[in-house]
Every structure is written in structure tokens, then in C-alpha cells.
Known about the structure:
The protein is of the alpha+beta class. Strands 1-3-2-8-5-7-6-4 form an 8-stranded antiparallel β-barrel. A hairpin with a 3-residue loop joins strand 6 and strand 7. This is YdbC family protein.
Amino acid sequence: xxxxWIRLTxxxxxxxxxxxxxxxxxxxxxxxxxQGGGWSRGRPGVAHLVAFWESRAFYxxxxxxxxxxxxxxQAGTYKDAQVRLFEHEFDVKVGFRPSFGDxxxxxxxxxxxxxERVEHFMLMQEKVWNPAMAGSPGMLRGMLGRAPGExxxxxxxxxxxxxxxxYRPERxxxxxxxxxxxxxxxxxxxxxxxxxxxxxx
Length: 201
């Protein structure tokens, strides 16, 4: 499965949200599996979207045919768009599916991993982070995606902001030490996203 992550700064909120509804047109696209998104809880005006495709071939076909027509409705409503593509490596918890109806909060961690530490990073995701997150109340499902090179996206879907808050900073610090994250990762950028139900496709 291919994951597309888009982060952008919205300059015309009403126009952007109106245009966002046009993406319902994705539903007829071959290989499309789902899309959701919302507003950053820590950065005003920043929106995140994640879309899921069965394969790169289906995604490339969509980009060549229909993308520009759907995107036209949002022209001029945002700036600084950053787009990244990741291949699904493994699930966090079990049975990841790209649906958002039962989800309030999306958490993203974008990791640039040192080349010689990639194997260790992936092992720690599986052996340390995965069980810890799977055991967190309110964490419904998640996944680890990888881009060419040493770039990873850890994506987790949470039932509510209150449940997400139970994932305490001191616990995260303990896990980070155990996983030797400082040795593995060159840079990490995260965000917590309040999902907008009307953006779900």
C-alpha cells in the first residue's frame, strides 16, 4: 500500500474547505483506498492530509489523469505544500485500514534515520514502540511507512484527544531511551492533527 502525506499552510480557510469537498471524486478511482485529514493542533493554519492507494501504479495513473481537475478547486487557498510518498512496511497494532469514521486524532512522526541505523530503527519500532502504542488506551491502529532512502512515517489513529493525552511524555521519554532513538534518528518532526470528518473520503 502507498501512503501520500501532504502538509500545507492554508491562507484561505473557507475556500480551502470548500475545495476539500471536491476530493469526494476520488471514490471512483481504481486503487484508491481512503483519505482523511484535518488541522494541526499546534500550528495555526497548517493542514495535513493522508491518502492511501493500493499501489504506486494506481496512484501514478490517477496523477496522470484526474488529479489536476480535482486539485483546481483549491488553487490559491494554500502555500508551502509538502508532499511525501511512503510504502507501507508494517502495521502498528494489528489490521491497519485507512478508514477515519471512528477516529478523532491523527498523530504523525516523520523520521530521518541514519543510514547505518535503519535496521535497528525498524527493529525498535517493531519490538519497543509497537507494543507500547498498541497497549495505549484510545490508540486504534497505525502503520509505519518508508520512503526511498532513510525516511520513515509513523502514523497512528486515536479515538480522542483525551485518550491521546494518556500517552504521557515521561513514558515516551523512557521508550525513546530504550529504543536508542537519539542514536538512530538524525531528525524527527511530529504533529497531532484534529481530524475534520468532512474531509474524509
